[in-house]
Amino acid sequence: MSQIIQRNLHQTRKETITVSADKQIRFDAAVDHGSFSPSHWHEAIEIIYVLEGTAVVTLFDQTVTLGPGQLLLINSGLVHASRCPSGNRTILVQIPDKFLSACLSDISRLWFSVDDNCTDPGVQRDVQHLKDLLLDMMHLQESARPGYLFSFNKDLFEFLELLYQKFLREMPGDYQPKSTRVLSRLDAVLDYTHQNYSSQITLRNAAGVAALQPEYFFRFFRENMGTTYLQYLNDYRLSRLYRDLLVTDLSIRELEERHGFSNDKLFHKLFRERFHTTPLQARKTARRLERSEKDSSAT
Predict the structure, then answer these.
(1) Where are the alpha helices (DSSP H) in 168-263?
(2) Which of 21, 77, 131, 134 has a CB 3.0–4.6 Å from the CB of 10, allowing a cystine?
(3) 209 and 189 Cβ atoms separated by less than 8 Å
(4) How many Cβ atoms from other residues are within 10 Å of residue 15's Cβ?
């Protein structure tokens, strides 16, 4: 864990948090037919609570597979990637630092640790209380009855108080926030990548954006993002392609061209490594799950 903490990016964000105007947090309870989010960070605590299926979360060199009933908290600024390999139903909560700063004076030192596998009865009871509050918030949001926000916010603040009282930990002493210069370079490189990923980008191109020599840039990116730049670029291409795979009827070849994959053999190899299936089978599975969900809703 110390290596993760040393590389933590706590003072900026790259993923934009979309909060609802009435809650000022993000609270989603939904079915995911399959998704992939490459390495990113944000200025928000993130909680993933799996209700059905599985979710796979990578925190640098640690990969956690969450099954039904399991919960994971990701601290603000921690670089992570996530994927839903075969469909799931989860509660996803993102609580921005800005929201917490209205109640706490120094959020820069916050570090929470929720161990869902702890065998201590007291810890198990507190973790279950967190889960019960999330479920109650989900049911309140689904009902959307007049005035439900009173009860929702009551649960939310009870959830946060429980986190603060029971799961707040001392931030490890080897944590070293990244300098503004490092963060600005990362922001520039990721912005450049997101805007140009469908074109052929070389390591030298990305290094030039960061104003670094390619050899140094290779180490710089891996140390701060937990992956090489080429791996990140291909992961980002896969994530964008995967979305179109599920919502369009474009051919696989058209999707490859649209999202920057010029080598068909390499694309299929990367896709199978990431999703453990073929693109066509992934599309069929997602469509089948979608039809099943609609049929269930109709009945």
Answers:
(1) 180-196, 203-209, 214-225, 229-247, 252-258
(2) 77
(3) yes
(4) 16
Q: Which two tokens stand for residue 294?
A: 């609609």
Burial of 119 per CB tally in 10 Å (0-12, 13-18, 19+)? exposed
Question: Residue 63 forms beta bridges with which residues?
Answer: 58
Backbone angles phi, psi at 18, to 5 degrees: -100, 110
Q: Between β-strands 26-32 and 88-96, what pairing exists: parallel, antiparallel or unpaired?
A: antiparallel
Check residue 276 and give its pLDDT. 86
**180-186 own/partner pairs: CB under 8 Å, 24+ apart:** 180/11, 182/220, 182/224, 183/9, 183/11, 183/12, 185/210, 185/211, 185/212, 185/220, 186/9, 186/12, 186/14, 186/210, 186/221, 186/224, 186/225
Q: Which residues contact 208 (CB under 8 A, 6 or more apart)?
A: none
The C-alpha atoms of residue 50 and residue 53 are separated, in whole angstroms, by 7
For residue range 162-193, list pLDDT tens digits in order: 999 999 988 766 655 566 787 789 989 999 99
CA angle 27, 28, 31 (to 5 degrees): 165
Residue type, 14: K
CATH of region 2-166: 2.60.120.10
Q: Which value, in Å, is the radius of gyration of the alpha carbons in the chain? A: 20
Give Cα separations from 193 to 17, 74, 230, 232, 291 (angstroms). 19, 25, 11, 9, 35
Instruction: Specify the pLDDT at position 152.
Output: 97
Gap between the terminal Cα atoms of the chain? 47
Domains 2-166 and 180-287 share a fold: no
* Angstrom distance (rounded) from CA 212 to CA 192: 15
Per-residue pLDDT tens digits for 84-95? 877 899 999 999
Q: Where are the domains of the chain?
A: 2-166, 180-287
Q: How far apart are CA 64 and CA 69, in angstroms?
A: 14
